[in-house]
Structures are given as structure tokens and as C-alpha cells.
Amino acid sequence: MKDRLILGIETSCDETAAAIVKNGKEIVAQVVASQIESHKRFGGVVPEIASRHHVEQITLVLEETLKQANLSYHDLNAVAVTEGPGLVGALLIGVNAAKALAFAYDLPLIGVHHIAGHIYANRLVKEFSFPLIALVVSGGHTELVYMKEHGCFEVIGETLDDAAGEAYDKVARTLNLPYPGGPHIDRLAHEGTASIDLPRAWLEEGSFHFSFSGLKSAVINTLHNAAQRGITIDPKDMAASFQQSVVEVLVEKTVRASEKYQAQQVLLSGGVAANKGLRTAMEEAFKKKKGIDLVIPPLSLCTDNAAMIAAFADVLYEKGIFGDYRMNAHPGLELTSYI
Ligand code: KG4
Ligand code: ZN
């Protein structure tokens, strides 16, 4: 078989990213331009600033990617882009860049769902074995996804309120930590002890859904009450307690889902998958589960990148699912099956 080279573009939030992936499994080149520094002083992503940065960066990032790969656009088989979900103005920059390239070089155009991309970051690490369960934990999503074959996504659980990463970022802000707060809480958590009693939202028996807003409020209330009584709480202990509460629920529900759906493999994905506490707890839990293969991507493939977009695009190419010049940005795009 001739090698297939797909260029992926990702601009759904605050990273401008491009990558070239061979046969859906091998990264040939990848570039990620992060805007975190520009958003930091606002304590979160400012959509207008994000779009502006994407416009400035996209051409440079694409050029750098091709240069790194030592390839020209004529060597590519397709161009793929995140069409949603995400910030509409940010998505549009990527979508328009992809359409322009598809037109200029007569390349097939492929629209990718951002979460499908996060899941397929794992295929750059290891080939999938079905059925599998993917835990997606990012700034905007917390989902348990069941897959019985490539391109077939069944969301079996999702958050009823805040996403895990969102809870991390909000709690971090309460503790006066910089944006994005996830990595800071993770670091502090390892220096503190989980001595503060915080709730775990298991929801009703057998539910694979999540809820993190109660936990977030419990952290805020505990800190507030302590301050009123003149008691100081060590932020390290709060970080450790909060992290333990999040991780315990994520791991336990993933284990239960893997048992119920007789998973061969469990995949971890999304920005929060970079969390050391979560990675270690998942490894511990699945070490005991014989016959279930746990895959955890390297940190660079957990947070937003374009290699994951090209990786899933390869599956769509194989299935003959292409977009056209009417492609648009879909901020609220749902994850559905492609078969
Ligand atoms: O997947 P991602 O890069 O962007 C979205 O699609 O949302 O995820 C970003 C989220 C942020 O909320 C960030 O705080 C969180 O991932 N994050 C972490 C860690 N690294 C990034 N959360 C907890 N621990 C970490 N080490
Ligand atoms: Zn993401």
C-alpha cells in the first residue's frame, strides 16, 4: 500500500496547530503555537484574542510543518481540519485555511470532530483493539465513549455541568493560581495531603455521567468559611484533596465502564489526561485488570494538537467521508458515529 499523508489543522481554542500524519499512525511533523501567555492575564481564553492570534499564526505554523516534514503540499493526500466543537471565530480560521489549501492544491477536504481527534491521539501511540472505552477529559469535555470499531462513537456518559478541566481551572483561580490552572493544581497536589473532606459525585447507581460543579462549590465554600473564621488552609492540601476527589470518580467510572462493555482497551485523552495523579491512578487501577490494555498518550498528545486531527481524518479518508467547500465552523458539534 502507498503511504497516505494527511495534513491536520487545529484552531478550536487557544493553540494554532498543524501536523502531517502518515497512515493515521505516524507523526511526520507537528507544530503547536500556544497562545496561553496572551490569555493568562485575563484568567481564561478571550475569544477575540484567540481568533486574532490564529490569523497571525496559521500561515507560519503551516509553513513550519511542511518544512519540518521536508514535503510540499503536492505530496499530501488530503487536508483535514477541526470543524467543531470550539470557539466559532477560532474554528473559522482553521476551516478557511483548510478550504484554501484544498482548493489551491486540489486536495480532498476532511472535517474532524475535536473529541474524535482527542481519542485518536491514542492511535499515534498504539493500534486500537475493539471494543474499547475512551475517557475524554479536557477543558470543555468530560466523556466516556464506547467504540466497537473505527469511527463508531457512543457517548455513554458525560458531565451534567462543568468539565473536569473547567473545574480544575475554576478551583485554581480561587487559589490564585495562574491560567490554565490544571498543571498548577497537579503540581501542588503532589506536595500536599488530601486531608480536607470533599464530596464525590457518583450520581445514581450505574450512571456513567459526571458532575463537578458541587465539588467546585464545596472547595469555594470551605475556603470562604475558613477565611471567615480566620483559619488558613494550605493550598497544597486543598489541591491534593480536590485532585483526589476528581481522580477517584474518573477512575472508578472508567473501570466500571470497561467491565460493563468488556473493553479490550481503555484510552485516556484530553488536556486533563496530562494530570500526573490521574495517570498514576489509572495505571494502578488497570494493572489489576488482566486483559485490558490501558493506553495513555504522552503529554504533548493530551493537550490540543493537530496530529490527533490528522489521525482521525485517516479513518474518514479510508471510509470515503469527505467535506466540501461549504464546510463551516460548528461551535456545538455533537460527537456522533461516522458509520
Ligand atoms: O484538551 P485541552 O488542551 O483543550 C480543550 O479541548 O479543552 O484541555 C485543556 C484543559 C485545561 O482545563 C487545563 O487546565 C487542563 O486541560 N490540564 C490539566 C493538566 N494539564 C492541562 N488539568 C489537570 N492536570 C494537568 N496536569
Ligand atoms: Zn481539546
Keywords:
single chain; 339 residues; alpha/beta; Nucleotidyltransferase, domain 5; 5-stranded mixed beta sheet; 10 strands; binds 5'-O-[(R)-(carboxyoxy)(hydroxy)phosphoryl]adenosine
Protein architecture, described:
It contains eleven helices and ten strands. With 339 residues, it is α/β, with parallel strands linked by helices. The chain folds into two domains: 5-119 and 301-319, ATPase, nucleotide binding domain (Nucleotidyltransferase, domain 5, 2-Layer Sandwich), CATH 3.30.420.40; 128-296, ATPase, nucleotide binding domain (Nucleotidyltransferase, domain 5, 2-Layer Sandwich). The strands form two sheets. A five-stranded mixed beta sheet has the order 3-2-1-4-5, sandwiched between helices. α2 (47-69) runs parallel beside α3, α4 (114-120) crosses α11 and α5 packs parallel to α7. The two termini are 23 Å apart. It binds 5'-O-[(R)-(carboxyoxy)(hydroxy)phosphoryl]adenosine (KG4) and zinc ion. 5'-O-[(R)-(carboxyoxy)(hydroxy)phosphoryl]adenosine (KG4) binds at residues 13, 138-140, 165, 168-169, 180-183, 186, 270-272, 274-275, 303-304.
The kinds of small molecule bound in this structure are: 5'-O-[(R)-(carboxyoxy)(hydroxy)phosphoryl]adenosine, zinc ion
Oligomer: single chain
In N-to-C order, the SSE pattern is EEEHHEHEHEEEHHHHEHEHH
Q: Write the CATH fold name of the largest domain.
A: Nucleotidyltransferase, domain 5
Count up the helices.
Answer: 11
Work out the strand percent.
15-25%
Using only C-alpha atoms, the radius of gyration works out to: 20 Å
Shape: globular
* E-strand count: 10
The percentage helix is 40-55%
Class by helix and strand content?
A: alpha/beta
Number of domains: 2
The stretches of 5 or more residues where confidence is low (pLDDT under 50) are: none
CATH structural architecture of the largest domain? 2-Layer Sandwich
